[in-house]
Amino acid sequence: MSRTLVLVRHGQSDWNLKNLFTGWRDPDLTDKGVEEAGAAGERLKAAGLHFDIAFTSNLSRAQRTLQLLLETQGQSGLETIRNEALNERDYGELSGLNKDDAREKWGEDQVHIWRRSYDVPPPGGESLKDTGARVWPYYIHTIQPKVLAGGTVIVAAHGNSLRALVMALEGLSPEEIVAAEIATGVPIVYRLNADSTVASKDVLEA
Ligand SMILES: O=C(O)[C@@H](CO)OP(=O)(O)O
């Protein structure tokens, strides 16, 4: 029984590089992002992981990361399910704005609250709680059954959609999730117990 769940955030995107709020906007990977995706594939291969199914969002940066990673890891034809439930948090009116400009306009503290708090949404956008309210049911009903059936499952998604998932998987509090960051292109490997709790966690850093 493998019961393995791998989470990976997409590689660096063009808008990560330009320091813009991205959310549901759809920039492509940078060259560095492409490299990060390949490196993630190498590490998964070295760890001996062979996937049964993949899940990703409706956004190009996550889909392309998954595709590049699977090519490197040797599973380019893997069955892949895309769903917008795994999309990045909707940044609302902040989408497309420069993060430093936003800090100048609204102040460091306010921007940090919008970016990392649990339940304060950015103007017109989703809080992490709102994001979790679509990510978690999708995980429970669609992804988790594949893992608990003994599978090895990969999810390629986004900084905040994965923070919402990690928060629920690890039982983190709203205070604890503020400090949690998910690095681009670094796979997190969870082994689950039969009762769906986390048995172990390994972060495959370079
Ligand atoms: O802009 C975004 O969509 C996210 C992820 O890149 O940014 P942040 O880390 O500020 O939540």
From TrEMBL:
GO molecular function: phosphoglycerate mutase activity
Pfam families the record matches: His_Phos_1 (PF00300)
Binding site for substrate: 9-16, 22-23, 61, 88-91, 99, 115-116, 159-160
Pathway linked to the protein: Carbohydrate degradation; glycolysis; pyruvate from D-glyceraldehyde 3-phosphate: step 3/5
Record bears the keyword Isomerase: yes
Subunit structure: Homodimer.
Descriptive protein name: 2,3-bisphosphoglycerate-dependent phosphoglycerate mutase
Organism (species): Aureimonas fodinaquatilis
Gene Ontology biological-process entries: gluconeogenesis; glycolytic process
Active site residues of this protein: H10 (tele-phosphohistidine intermediate), E88 (proton donor/acceptor)
Gene field: gpmA
